[in-house]
Design goal:
The structure holds two protein chains of two kinds.
Chain A: E1 4-12, E2 19-25, E3 32-39, H1 58-61, H2 65-76, E4 85-91, E5 96-102, E6 106-107, H3 108-114, H4 116-119, H5 122-141, E7 154-157, E8 162-165, H6 179-182, H7 190-206, H8 218-225, H9 237-240, H10 246-255, H11 266-270
Antiparallel strand pairs in A: 1-2, 2-3, 3-5, 4-5, 6-7, 7-8
Helix pairs in contact in A: 5-7, 7-10
Chain B: E1 2-3, H1 9-18, H2 21-45, H3 49-65, E2 66-67, H4 73-91, H5 110-123, H6 133-157
Antiparallel strand pairs in B: 1-2
The chains are: A alpha+beta, B mainly alpha.
Protein name (chain A): cyclin-dependent kinase
EC number (chain A): 2.7.11.22
Domain Protein kinase (chain A): 4-275
Chain lengths: 282, 158
């Protein structure tokens, strides 16, 4: 680890008290990385959560299923809007796995706070949302879901206004959790990712979290979006986003759709009229 | 197990050229036995065909990077078990315990199989996903026909 120097905390590991640190690369290459370390043993494995594996003897199951699937997914995940896995080390003796991901200048939360003037540019919001959706669409196209999208793992490079999604097993933030998950569904899904995208979009537009408070609860969501009948839709959305153009309002209502089966999909959202006037310089 | 990756590609191919015909024929028959075991065990556990297919690709990919000495049938057997176990973990909902994989003539301890799994993973750089035509089906049906025709095309294709 001589190559990297610790440089701040970015979050907490899922189902664990361990913090995830940001590191600064030493030497000429510069730049920041995120390092995730875990033991290749189901009991201690942060990637495998609460399943039957956890109770089994590690030697009996061999390499844990979730670790295997997640790392092989990370290995093939190559998209300009998804944070790249830079290197993976495995130390045979102590079964320690170390994943090193690239990082960007800052996360979206910091960006909205520290670059308030820049972040209030609605054209930039559109550009960032488009990149977010592209990254999410890539996850979904390979049959995966992110499961914990929130402004802390959406990263921004200030200079080129590039957005990248960080995908490591971090705690999901309740404020971005889809209603079906709050109501007891346990599996993360592409539809739940889209709800989180809606919350993040809303946060970019208003520069504050859509659902406030220590823990978002179902009442907050129903207060804003109406109780789950499709008739009273879209509730109070236009009041919450007075400055958002009509197409944006329409997109946000489709992202925050209460019924996961009717919620807009990532590839459809990218074709939404909201992005019609977006010219991406690539 | 030796590593081919450590020697230059030309050296590796020299190894192959200089190896006797007898070694090659031993190897061919060993591979055939391995495939046979994988397909039989697939049936026994009720795995999908894709799982067996995937384990054979792991098997061949491994041997394109590392070599197994001629005559070491136990190593071929152990490799077959590790490849099938890994493929099952990638593809199947119900994955057996390592000790449930039965191999003729040998009795591998679970921790030995696990070590072999890790050897395979590092040789294959943990790239264990498989690309099948189905992975592209949605993409192309979307491109060609839009979302409405997707369900129809997919159900017809499947």
């Amino acid at each position: 680890m001589e190559k990297y120097k610790r440089d701040g905390v970015i979050g907490k590991e899922r189902n664990s008290l361990r913090q995830i640190h940001k590191y600064r690369r030493q030497g000429s290459s510069g730049g920041s990385v995120v390092v995730k370390r875990f033991m290749l043993q189901p009991k201690l494995d942060a990637l495998s959560t609460r399943d039957e594996e956890a109770s089994a003897d590690p030697e009996e199951t061999g390499v844990p299923i979730k670790t295997l699937r997640q790392i092989s997914l990370l290995k093939v995940m190559q998209h300009e809007n998804i944070v790249r896995l830079v290197e993976m080390n495995y130390e045979d003796g102590d079964s320690l796995v170390r994943l090193v991901f690239e990082y960007a200048d800052m996360d979206l939360r910091n960006f909205l706070e520290e670059y308030a003037a820049k972040a209030s540019d609605q054209k930039l919001v559109k550009k960032l949302l488009c990149q977010l959706l592209r990254g999410v669409a890539h996850f979904h196209s390979i049959g995966a879901a992110h499961g914990a999208l929130n402004p802390k793992n959406v990263l921004i490079d200030i200079g080129n206004e590039n957005l990248k999604i960080l995908n490591i097993a971090m705690d999901a933030d309740a404020l971005y959790t889809a209603p079906e998950l709050l109501l007891g569904s346990t599996e993360s899904s592409p539809a739940a990712d889209m709800f989180a995208v809606g919350c993040i979009f809303a946060e970019m537009v208003n520069r504050r979290p859509l659902f406030q408070g220590k823990a978002a609860n179902i009442n907050n969501i129903f207060n804003l979006l109406g109780t789950p009948t499709e008739e009273n839709w879209p509730g109070k959305l236009s009041e919450v986003f007075p400055n958002l153009e009509p197409h944006g309002l329409d997109l946000i209502s489709k992202l925050l759709c209460l019924d996961p089966s009717k919620r807009i999909k990532a590839c459809a959202a990218l074709k939404h009229d909201y992005f019609k006037d977006l010219i991406l310089l690539r | 197990f030796g590593s081919k990756a450590s020697s230059s590609p030309s050296l590796a191919s020299d190894d192959w050229n200089s190896s006797s015909i007898r070694t090659q024929s031993w190897f061919k028959s060993a591979r055939l036995k391995a495939l046979e075991w994988i397909y039989n065990t697939r049936a026994q556990f009720g795995f999908h065909f894709k799982t067996a297919y995937l384990s054979v690709t792991y098997f061949d990919r491994f041997l394109s990077k590392r070599y197994i000495d001629s005559g070491k049938m136990w190593a071929i057997r152990l490799l077959s078990v590790a490849c099938l176990s890994l493929a099952a973990k990638m593809e199947e909902c119900n994955v057996p315990m390592l000790s449930e994989f039965r191999v003729q003539d040998y009795n591998f301890e679970s921790k030995v199989i696990k070590r072999m799994e890790l050897l395979v993973l590092s040789a294959l750089e943990w790239k264990m996903g498989s690309i099948t035509p189905f992975a592209y089906l949605n993409y192309f049906t979307n491109k060609f026909g839009g979302e409405n025709s997707q369900r129809l095309v997919v159900s017809t294709a499947v």
